[in-house]
Specification:
By secondary structure, the protein is of the alpha+beta class. 20% of the residues lie in helices and 29% in strands. It has one domain: Rossmann fold (3-Layer(aba) Sandwich). The strands form 3 sheets. A 4-stranded mixed β-sheet has the order 3-6-8-7. It has a two-stranded antiparallel ribbon with strand order 1-2. Helix 2 packs across helix 3. It is globular and about 45 Å long. The structure holds S-adenosylmethionine.
Length: 161
């Protein structure tokens, strides 16, 4: 993939970059982000089955979603979460959403890298794919992890809105 270190779209408030995060993120300054929301690849497109438009189909979201094995997947997550730690302000927070395929690795790595987890939040999906095999419960939620760089960090939380 071509490396883009200039935003392909930008306003004074918002810059959008297109590229592999491992190529793009190193060009960002230290401690500049107020908040990071990441929805990383699940690594679940490994010939399992799902239901699409009422039909049983193989799970194939794309090459980006194929697992390279436990260790390599973890190494990828560790790389981008480390970059997030570098670019996040001390008062900033990070949100990571995922499923059982990736969220536990991300949670472990957040803690390994020194983050303090504030909450894990259940994002319920009322329109989840039907449970075809009935060998497990339906996968009807994502988990969001909300974390700060340090337990003593003074982060913003508008509890009363
Ligand atoms: C779980 S999906 C998130 C989709 C997103 N929330 C949306 O609504 O479009 C993961 C996304 O990460 C992207 N992705 C995978 N590997 C990446 C990488 N190394 N750098 C940047 N994006 C990547 C995929 O293209 C995919 O769009």
């Amino acid at each position: 993939m071509e490396v883009k270190t200039e935003p392909f779209y930008g306003t004074p408030e918002t810059h959008l970059y297109l590229g592999d995060c491992l190529d793009v993120m190193p060009s960002f300054a230290d401690n500049f982000a107020d908040m990071i929301f990441a929805d990383p690849p699940y690594m679940l497109s490994n010939d399992g089955i799902t239901c699409q438009a009422g039909k049983m189909v193989k799970v194939n979201k794309g090459k980006w979603d194929k697992s390279s094995g436990f260790e390599k997947d973890a190494a990828f997550h560790e790389q981008w979460i480390s970059e997030c730690r570098r670019i996040l302000k001390p008062s900033g927070t990070i949100w990571i959403s995922g499923t059982n395929h990736n969220i536990f690795q991300c949670g472990y790595l957040l803690q390994k890298l020194g983050f303090h987890i504030l909450n894990d939040i259940t994002w319920y999906k009322p329109n989840a794919a039907p449970n075809l095999a009935c060998k497990t419960f339906a996968h009807s939620h994502e988990t969001l992890i909300w974390a700060v760089k340090d337990k003593k960090a003074k982060y913003i939380f508008n509890y009363k809105i």
